[in-house]
Amino acid sequence: MDKRFADLAAEGRPALVTYFMGGDPDFETSLAIMKALPSAGADIIELGMPFSDPMADGPAIQLAGQRALKGGQTLKKTLEIARRFRADDQHTPIVMMGYYNPIYIYGVERFLDDALEAGIDGLIVVDLPPEMDDELCIPALKKDINFIRLATPTTDDKRLPKVLENTSGFVYYVSMNGITGSALPDPSVVGGAVQRIKGHTQLPVCVGFGVKTAEHARAIGASADGVVVGTAIVNQVASSLSEDGKSTGATVPGVEALVRGLSAGVRSARLVAAE
Amino acid sequence: MNETPKLNSFRSGPDEDGRFGIFGGRFVAETLMPLILDLQDEWNKAKTDPEFQAELKHLGAHYIGRPSPLYFAERLTEHLGGAKIYFKREELNHTGSHKINNCIGQILLAKRMGKTRIIAETGAGQHGVASATVAARFGLPCVVYMGATDVERQAPNVFRMKLLGAEVKPVTAGSGTLKDAMNEALRDWVTNVDSTYYLIGTAAGPHPYPELVRDFQSVIGTEAREQMLEAEGRLPDLVIAAVGGGSNAIGIFHPFLDDESVRIVGVEAGGKGLEGDEHCASITAGSPGVLHGNRTYLLQDSDGQIKEGHSISAGLDYPGIGPEHSWLADIGRVEYVPIMDHEALEAFQLLTRLEGIIPALEPSHAIAEVIKRAPKMGKDEIILMNLSGRGDKDIFTVGKILGMGL
Ligand SMILES: Cc1ncc(COP(=O)(O)O)c(C=O)c1O
To answer: Does the keyword Glycosyltransferase belong to this entry (chain B) (predicted)?
Structure first.
């Protein structure tokens, strides 16, 4: 992951971080989506772990999780998606993103071992703030799996050091107080927030929540080290499905086309060399 | 005498991280963390602020109608032929249940914190009504999230909330019950952190909620303990309460936890039986997991996905339970047992006919447990039960099941 960010910095452009839901709408299709992401321009992949009660997600990602669970997706199968992807692609960093309970029930140590074996580079677990670091963050760091933390507009300067303390890989700045899938806030405000975080850390700062188009990606990518797109991809999957919720011939190509557009966006975002 | 809590006290939790043993904690999104820490600071100050305590006491006496009576249920006692049965009459409170005790306390906190908007989740609608009531009393706008299934089965309460000026938002996700309403309330809170106070209705959620809800509800047990000493000159042998999220139960249990002679029983919703998924017996039939900000017993599958659960009573229809109950169960201080829908329904009818009290379906579960235990106990023994709410809201549900045209 560190190498990926260093390479991109040398290229002078932000990373495109793409989120999709593991198992949506079924195992094979979501594996095909994952395999299609790097050549369409994704630099880092966030692999969503479905959860029945995604408290920080909007309707789009909630529904994606429900589709996946209905299709029989489990944490074990989500790890299997990563493992199968890793067999063909040894370079694209994979970050698993979701909620704690399925990991807790799987067993933290067993999960970390299986995640390592599957080629996972990092974890984002929404409901584990720094106060809960003993649960998963510290054990993950001990096994050299990055623990990527969310910083939000409510994370003030007093709290930032605590949030950043055990963070590695990158910092995920949530561009607004809200759930996934909300509207994009003013890029200049986001830019200011990114600078504020950079005042506290050397880690790359990626921005997510609200980025849907190449235009957004370009605007946010002007100040951030990476742009995270999730809801737009999940919506693209949803819109391609047949009436009974099955994948169609348009599912994978639709995601590819979207990501290609987003990739053009980040590639045209000139990083302003602030230093 | 040394004033610090006894080392072996059951009443000293949670620790500063909000843990009761392995249970509790603060499993929330980063956006909410600063708020929860603020709330904890404010609560720590309020706890020892004589002005806050005085206002709470005043409103308790003049607005809620505290103390609620301790009532000797003479005819039920006679009918069952065993232990003497006392009810703590929380159903006589303003708005008809114990929920108001917590709402008054929390809205005073919200006011201290300068919040201008109240949100709440509700199952049976009792907490929604109590929240809408205190919001009206303090002139704050209020949004109540309620599962669509519950909106239907608790229609009278929906109407009451609307009359009180609250906006009721039906939640269709999942099975449209309390868990889904709580998810949606959390989403609202994450989005409106600056202005909004989340008034949680039960002794669950992230720290400090389980603690502060317990403390606001402990007035039930504190009063009942004194009233019992006055009425009988001694403590009860058995204390019983129904457990949804666990607020009325912890409220009556907590002041008795260190009284070794007092057995304590929490009654979970056994629904249609524990064999399938149609129950809400988180402790009896669930396992520890993390949901809604805390680690606690949950109904979940082998992949850690939360199950929906079922209960005839909307207020017990929740796949989790407050973390302090999980701890009390694990250490063996409190026993938790299930009562089935049909047993609760029979208890509902029996109490109505024998005592002229129409109980809510939630405490009807506790009554059903009393019906099982009292005959096996001696006439010199005493049971104290929390009659947490009245049944006006449930007459349509019950009428439908009994085939009465309403
Ligand atoms: C009358 C009554 N009792 C009990 C409950 C269950 O909640 P808790 O377990 O928090 O007391 C409810 C919930 O709505 C209720 O209305």
So the answer is: no
